[in-house]
Design a protein that fits this description.
With 288 residues, the protein is an alpha/beta fold. The chain has 2 domains: 119 residues, Rossmann fold (3-Layer(aba) Sandwich); 118 residues, Rossmann fold. 44% of the residues lie in helices and 20% in strands. The protein has 9 helices and 10 strands. A 10-stranded mixed beta sheet has the order 3-2-1-4-5-10-9-6-7-8, sandwiched between helices. Strand 2, helix 2 and strand 3 form a beta-alpha-beta unit. The chain is elongated and about 80 Å long.
Length: 288
């Protein structure tokens, strides 16, 4: 995939428990891809409102004006505090990247909706890094809730994490023989992201001749590009086989397509995908 040299790895981060895991995954990916790294923290345009009953209709006009002024001042102060906290948070992530030996790091604080903001940035990005879950609290950013929408609308690879990140040594590619799966092989074979990793290919279920031929071609393609490849052709659902392979083979990264082939679409749209990603307990690389 030909890219502009100014393209970057963009990590969308919130102030939740996954922040350091997302940062570490993004630092690793940016180093592998030899791309600059940017941490993006998106603040909600609408600050959290105070809990309690609204009694403004039960008081006089002067009192209402005073209350509205007080609420406006409080919201302005909350917004200022959120911006300051966001800047300190991003500065901490930049320091983490520098401590890891990665100096090509920038940070950005934005107001708005997360999905819209990421779509606006997409033209200059090679890889997005997200957490599968967000900060706690009713009104906090919840990055994982936006994953399905982002995968559907972004052409780039998306790397997701849901716990502490460790640089992977082995990758598992969930392969079904479809055109989408073959495109994924083309993505991955040319990407430095997986260079040098042991590669496992999983074809689950009862595949037909076309899928078997595609599997053989995928193996040959990866081996010709220098990958060490192990093929697993197993019965049953991929959703049950993936966690077992991750555990038994010491898999550190799961790669899979999304939102085209019917079986994987059902997985990714429903709770079965969330269960699969959680049970795999490894970072997941998604493509559309």
């Amino acid at each position: 995939m030909t890219v502009d040299h100014e393209n970057r790895v963009l990590a969308a981060v919130d102030r939740g428990p996954l922040a350091h895991a997302v940062a570490d995954a993004a630092i690793w990916a940016a180093g592998r891809l030899a791309r600059p790294l940017e941490f993006l923290h998106v603040l909600d345009r609408h600050p959290e409102q105070a809990a309690g009953e609204d009694r403004s209709g039960a008081i006089g006009l002067d009192a209402q004006d005073h209350l509205l002024q007080a609420l406006s001042a409080r919201d302005a102060e909350n917004s200022r505090q959120a911006r300051e906290a966001g800047r300190l948070f991003l500065a901490g992530l930049r320091a983490r990247a520098l401590a890891a030996g990665f100096s090509r790091t920038d940070v950005r604080l934005r107001h708005g909706a997360l999905v819209d903001t990421l779509l606006e940035q997409a033209a200059g990005v090679d890889l997005f890094v997200l957490g599968r879950g967000g900060a706690t609290g009713e009104h906090a950013q919840r990055l994982g809730q936006n994953l399905a929408s982002l995968v559907q609308r972004l052409p780039q690879l998306i790397l997701t994490v849901h716990r502490d990140f460790a640089a992977p040594q082995r990758c598992l590619i969930a392969f079904d023989g479809s055109a989408m799966a073959r495109r994924g092989i083309e993505h991955l074979r040319h990407s430095p992201l997986l260079a040098g990793l042991d590669c496992h290919l999983l074809l689950a279920g009862s595949p037909g001749r076309e899928a078997l031929r595609a599997l053989a071609q995928a193996r040959s393609t990866l081996e010709n590009d220098g990958f060490s490849v192990c093929v697993h052709q197993l019965p049953g659902e991929a959703s049950s086989q993936v966690p077992r392979l991750v555990r038994d083979e010491g898999i550190g990264l799961l790669a899979m397509g999304a939102f085209q082939h019917a079986a994987w679409r059902r997985l990714l749209l429903g709770s079965r995908t969330n269960a699969l990603l959680r049970s795999a307990e490894v970072p997941t690389l998604l493509w559309r």
